[in-house]
Amino acid sequence: MKKLFILFVFMASALPVFCQDLIVDTKGDSLNCKIISEDESYFFVKITTQKGERINTLINKKEVFDVQYDFFTIQKQEKRITNRNKWRLGFDIGIAYRIAETSTFVDRNLINLVEGAKFGYTFGTDCAYFFSTYWGVGLRYNYFKSSNEELHGKIKFQTNYVSPSIYARVPFRSNPNNIFISSFGLGYMGENQSCTYNSQDIKLKGSTVGIMVSVGFDVKLSSSTALSIEFAFLGGSLGEATITRDGTTQKQTLSDDQRERLSRIEFKLGLKFLP
Predict the structure, then answer these.
(1) Mean local confidence (pLDDT), 113-122
(2) C-alpha neighbours within 13 Å on the C-beta side of residue 244
(3) In 10 A of CB 239, how many CB atoms?
(4) What's the rounded Cα separation, in Å, for the pair 64 and 223?
């Protein structure tokens, strides 16, 4: 029994030598060490120098991007990655294109006017909280606007979208400053259209349930900021709309072939804050 206890003490004291942790800083540099303890601001670590000397030091958590515990083990245990940035919030702006076909409900005289308003711009904000290394939840808002003007008229489209969203992220092992990130949301989509044609004013307003799917990359600029590059798809269609013609308003139910489809694709650049 005494021999087993001595063996256990020996193995426990030897564990820090064989089980090493890996710390990756915000510049992408890595450090092999043993994390002894930590608090809200610092890691207290033990480092073995090239000369074989062991020294203890502090590492500021603001300068740390990833921590991989027990990264270097004799039995090559599974790596556990912990990202220190729990929050991600910011804004983005970009270009968008309406991919939906023009509804048969649209007057034939307005088709060219509507088709000319496919391209537009988009602006969005989002806030996400990552409750684990890879998964998070948040809230997204997106605004889209496009317009077209011709000799006999002009038209303007405006779409608002807001929804709770699920986020997934994966840091690149080759460069932890680059992070693949995607999201999926299901929420409110509101559409406003206004058109003037041959001195006649027409307005359409409606709302529906819409979806948003996005994929992209975050490139870290510092420990607390990142440049985001994102591709997104938004979809939805109106089955009912409020239409106003020259001051007269009526609600109208749209059949399947008349539904106002709101699908579009987007390419955006943004700035994200990682407190």
Answers:
(1) 89
(2) 12
(3) 13
(4) 7
> For the whole model, what pTM was predicted?
0.69
Return the SS3 of 3.
helix
Which ranges of 140-227 does DSSP label H, i.e. alpha helix?
Answer: none
Radius of gyration of the chain (CA): 27
Q: How far apart are CA 229 and CA 9, in angstroms?
A: 52
| pLDDT, tens digit, 9 for 90 and up, residues 20-36 | 788 888 777 888 888 88
Mean pLDDT of the region 105-127: 84
Bridge pairing between strands 80-83 and 64-72: antiparallel
Cβ atoms 43, 68 nearer than 8 A: no
**For the CA atoms of 252, 113, 103, 213, what is the dihedral angle to 10 degrees?**
-110
What pLDDT score was predicted for residue 129?
A: 96
